[in-house]
Amino acid sequence: MRKIPAIFLASLLLVPLVHTLAQPIAIAELPVGSKLTYRLGGVYVGNKTYEVVGWSSSQGRNCKLVRVHLVVNASGSFFYRGINSTSEFCYDDRGRPLEEVLYIPPEFNLSYRKVEITYWWEGNEVFPHRSLIKLIGEKNESYDVLLGEGVVVRESNGKAERFEFSRENLSKVLPFVPERLTQPYVDLSSIRLKEGYEREYDGLEVRVLSLENVETPAGLFPCYKVLLSGWTEDGLPYNSTVYVTVKEPRFTAYYITNIIGIKQTGYVVEVEIPEQGSPIPYPWIVLAIAVAVLLLIMLKKRRKGG
User: For the stretch 56-73, what's the b/e string if a residue is b when 16 or more beta carbons lie within 10 angstroms of its beta carbon?
Assistant: First the structure.
């Protein structure tokens, strides 16, 4: 019996893991200490928890470190019954990922134990102009993706190979394709949403349809109902209806993603957001400084008099 190459298995097994992690969750405004848990339904059934654990840096830029714990079962899968994994993401101030670390569940039985991805963005890009994908384990491989140039450089065992590609056939040159390379990325909490808002981001159409109240186990949230629509790498139409809270810090309360009738849903069941200290009004700042200066003068006079 012919042995299936590990890289081929990776392409089959990592794709559902990556796609389950890459759901339309607004993250940009959440402060450190926040925790959101979602109940998933559809192709993947289970829970996904986001924890904003602190600050880090990538490429000399500050980014918000978010830990994502995923416990799901995938219906109809031949290769596995479920996924139990923890991954880490670091987002810039626009909610765009600069770093991703995906820890591969042991049940996948691969020679790779984790995947590290670094993204480079410029200006208002909705696709990273460069992405470095590293498969780390018994042997290491890397894929340097220069999206604008249509070039991938693969390194393995000290050897480098160069491939040309188009965005539509990336899956032919990569072991798996991160969603960031095939679908425009926009964090909805980084947009000043309002009713009637409509804009296209390099093939991704964003429309605010209405204001609605969304009831979840975590509470009742006034939300913007936002429709995202576009095309997958394979040319299939998809759309996501995402309910983003009106009140800041904004986050996704509920979403439905639909690709040709195949649906995935998620709704928030637990919300922990630490209260942010209210800013001190400017007049009080001036008064505090004046009092501090007066006390300093009085202290100096007392010392001289003594």
Answer: bebeeeebbbbbbebebe
Rounded CA-CA distance 228/193 in Å is 13
The answer to whether the Cα torsion of 177, 181, 182, 184 is positive or negative is positive
Residue 84 sits at the vertex; the CA angle it makes with 83 and 88, to the nearest 5 degrees, is: 110
- The tens digit of pLDDT for each residue in 209-248 reads 999 999 999 999 999 999 999 877 667 788 899 999 999 9
108 close to 13: Cβ distance less than 8 angstroms = yes
Q: What one-character DSSP code corresponds to residue 28?
A: T
Question: Which segments of the chain have a pLDDT < 50?
Answer: 1-13, 78, 277-285
Task: Give the Å distances, CA to CA, from 238 to 29, 96, 203, 256, 274.
Answer: 26, 21, 12, 11, 35
The CA distance from 59 to 48, in Å, is: 28
Closest of 39, 14, 92 to residue 252, by C-alpha: 39
Tokens matching residue 162:
């160069």
**From residue 87, how far is each of 65, 186, 291 by CA, in Å?**
11, 20, 50
Kindly report the backbone phi and psi dihedral angles of residue 218, in degrees, each rounded to the nearest multiple of 5, phi listed first.
-90, -5
What three-state secondary structure class fits 179? helix
> Which amino acid appears at position 220 of this protein?
L
The H or E element that residue 294 is part of is: helix 282-305
Q: Are 181 and 145 in contact (CB under 8 A)?
A: yes
Round to the nearest angstrom and report the end-to-end CA distance of the chain. 97
CA distance 140 to 156: 7
Torsion of the alpha carbons at 74, 108, 237 and 222, rounded to the nearest 10: 60
- Phi and psi for 14 in degrees, rounded to 5? -75, -30
The rounded Cα 88 to chain-centroid distance in angstroms is 9
